[in-house]
Amino acid sequence: MANFNRFLSSLPRPLRPLAHIYEVVARALHAIGPKRLYTRALLIILLPIIILQSVLVFVFMERHYDLVSRRMSEAVVREIASMVFILENLDLGSDFTLVERMGSEVLGLSATVLPPEPLPPPTPKPYFDVIDQGLSRAISTTIGKPFWIDTVGNARFVEIRIQLKDHVLRVFARRSQTFASNSHIFLVWMFTTSLVLVVIAMLFLRNQIRPVVRLAEAAESFGKGRPTDRLRPSGAREVRQASHAFIEMRRRIERQIEQRTTMLAGVSHDLRTILTRFRLQLALLPGGSETEGMKRDVNEMTHMLEDYLAFARGDGDEAVVETDMALMLEELEEEAEISGTDIRARYEGEPMIPLRRNAMKRCLSNLITNASKFGGRVEVHGILRQGWLTVTIDDDGPGIPASSRDDAFRPFHRLDEARNQDLSGSGLGLAIARDIARSHGGEIYLEDSPLGGLRARVRLPA
């Protein structure tokens, strides 16, 4: 929007209303238009074909078809006019065999000279009848005598009667003589070939878009920590370049994760060795309040070290496996009850979901531990619906103000209000939980709980 405003301000003042109209039309098309690449590409192919065919049909029907039909009608009328000229300028008496033979043998018309009689009353005319309009116009212009036309009664022939001074000339002409009757062949061929070409284009277009879809699926799977080794670059050159770039990016990220994991393993080993020596030395010291305080400090340092290493390491080195969420919630309920937490857990829907099991269990454990610290009652509810896994953890504690909920996810951040910093902890529980949820392609939301405290809602794609 900012870029468009800058572009609008750079335009001359007379062109700015046109730019506003363009913006409105573009937004409307974006709102009602298709969102998938295949559908958009198909429309890019179909719309020009439809417009081109519409123009061709209009030009053909309005120019070629109408012009040819008019010329054919004028030719038939000129032939009738020649017979009228003979009847009016030659003294044939009562023998009109010459005119009738001229019509059948020379002009291809069935002509009959009738005695003088009134013309039949006009018949209802089709509004869009090209034959009736063309013949009527040509007779009025070329012959200029009273006439009667029947273009509806007989499907194969057109009957024309011309009122002369002493006679009535009746002529039957084939419909194919008065207008271009093969126009439907042109339309059939045009629409048939277009349909065949569109089907072929759809097949080729689907093959071209399939590599893009596979690349998008691989990127999504990689973001969720799932295997992406099946991706093979294919398709157009640009799609192959994007696939090669993605594969190289994935390798660099995996190499970086491997190096970080190796470094953290070394740091963890060295620090744990020092803490183990502290514990052994404290075990050899005589008991007392100072010794117990030092033991608590060492235990807290151990827990903090585990949290720091877990936060820094992440969960990228764990494989995705089919996980029974119902069983996981039961395990978390049992573990929380052992520590004295009043907790109730239940699950609805299909339990088997592809996840990093240990990481997901740590995520939920951190949220449950956080809820049990500040509330006396904890309820956990999991449900799988419409391809999304949602787990809510509710407590009846003091909660977190809405303005401070984003800060609760910041690493090493300790809230000063209701959930204060008097309790032990590293300040990484929620940060670790959110990182795990995001690594699965999901998110954690903090909301008001029906129990009166805080609700942590985990939402992941299944």
Walk me through what this model shows:
It is a single chain. The longest helix has about 55 residues, at about 35-90. This protein has about 450 residues and is of the alpha+beta class. Residues about 415-425 have low confidence and may be disordered. Among the domains are: about 1-35, no CATH class; about 60-180, Beta-Lactamase (2-Layer Sandwich), CATH 3.30.450; about 320-460, Heat Shock Protein 90 (2-Layer Sandwich). α3 (about 35-90) packs parallel to α5 (about 130-140), α7 runs parallel beside α8 (about 235-285) and α11 packs antiparallel against α12. The chain starts with a helix and ends with a strand. It has helices at about 1-10, 15-30, 35-90, 95-105, 130-140, 175-180, 185-225, 235-285, 290-315, 325-340, 355-375, 430-440; strands at about 110-115, 145-150, 155-165, 170-175, 320-325, 340-350, 350-355, 375-385, 390-395, 445-450, 455-460. About 20% of the residues are buried. It is rod-shaped. The protein contains twelve helices and eleven strands. The strands form three sheets. Strands 6-8-9-11-10 form a five-stranded mixed β-sheet, with helices on one face.
